[in-house]
Write a structure and sequence with these properties.
Number of strands: 13
CATH superfamily of the largest domain: Thiolase/Chalcone synthase
CATH class of the largest domain: Alpha Beta
Helix content: 25-40%
Strand content: 15-25%
């Protein structure tokens, strides 16, 4: 289905780009599997066995999502040691924006007083962080921009059908941010790869300004503008593409799996992570997972896990790490970083 395409790596970059700082913001409301047992026909044992999720965070009803993004961004700027006025670009990855316009990126820009930054939103669903990282890398290595802020913020609790036990158990809310900027040569973002399978996009849908008759029929509840997913089809796609993208990014970077310190995948389902790891022949300690605490938080999943892995001491200067994900669209992507902070 997918083919390896070796892309020549330029040895004449004007700059090398890397992650200079990270930050996260998590809602205070912890929603456990036992809470879900009171709402739908499910059980803590079933959810853990099928997904690996024990709890998730839920944003307050009266809190705008972009505020969570601003909080994560402020932490990332502090971690990077730069001021908001130094930012050249703000990218917000989300599939649950507060508004279609103004964009979430413009709302974050306003909240940070980052008046010198251009700003736009990017929607690649759960792969949004990888897509955003590739965009930032290309802007920086060509010399077009110096500092790019990526914010991933999601409030999936606002688009799930809480009466649909097949989906409501999976998702949570969170925000994460990174500052990307110039780093010393041979450190930072070594390679990225992006892909999409639009012909499979009907397997995950969140309507916005329009909904087809076909999508209406898939939703049995009173609320129609909600997330719907064909879990079995997504599972099959996810296991294959996670393994493929990981192998591809390592190969494209001229490395082998023995050179990789840690793999940080999108946290969608523990069975997907285990299945991909098995295909790759990886040991359990090579694949980072925090899905038990947050569930699937879409684009925020990888940067939240990255922030935690750094804080836990799982990532050190010079370590090669792979970030890999898949999501609605359907989209997929991977990045190989030689940690620069």
């Amino acid at each position: 289905m997918w083919e390896h395409r070796m892309e020549p790596r330029s040895e004449h970059r004007l700059k090398w780009a890397g992650i200079l700082g990270t930050g996260i913001s998590l809602p205070g409301n912890i929603f456990t599997n036992h809470d879900l047992e009171k709402m739908v026909d499910t059980s803590d044992e079933w959810i853990i066995k099928r997904t690996g999720i024990r709890e998730r965070r839920i944003i307050d009803k009266d809190k705008p999502l972009h505020q969570l993004g601003i909080e994560a961004a402020e932490k990332a700027l502090l971690s990077a040691g730069i001021g908001s006025e130094e930012l050249d670009l703000i990218i917000v990855a989300t599939d649950t924006p507060d508004y279609l316009t103004p964009s979430m990126a413009c709302l974050v820009q306003r909240g940070l007083s980052a008046r010198n930054a251009a700003a736009f939103d990017l929607n690649a669903a759960c792969t949004g962080f990888i897509y955003s990282l590739a965009v930032a890398d290309n802007f920086i290595r060509t010399g077009y921009y110096s500092y790019v802020l990526i914010v991933c913020c999601e409030s999936l609790s606002r688009v799930v059908d809480w009466k649909d036990r097949s989906t409501c158990v999976l998702f949570g809310d969170a925000a994460a941010a990174v500052v990307v900027g110039p780093v010393d040569g041979n450190l930072g973002i070594i390679s990225t790869c992006l892909g999409a399978e639009g012909n499979l996009g009907h397997n995950i849908t969140i309507p916005c300004c329009y909904i087809s008759e076909e999508d209406l029929e898939k939703r049995s509840g009173e609320r129609k503008m909600t997330l719907w997913m064909d879990g079995s089809e997504v599972f099959k796609f996810a296991v294959g593409i996670m393994a493929f993208a990981t192998e591809k990014i390592v190969m494209d970077s001229g490395l082998s799996m023995d050179d990789i310190k840690l793999i940080i995948p999108h946290q969608a389902n523990i069975r997907i992570l285990d299945g991909a790891a098995k295909r790759l022949g990886l040991s359990e300690n090579m694949v980072y997972s925090n899905i038990h605490k947050y569930g699937n938080i879409s684009s925020a999943s990888i940067p939240v896990a990255l922030n935690e892995a750094v804080e836990d001491g799982r990532v050190a200067l010079g370590d090669n790490i792979v970030l890999v994900g898949f999501g609605g669209g359907l989209t997929w992507g991977a990045a190989l970083l030689r940690w620069a902070k």
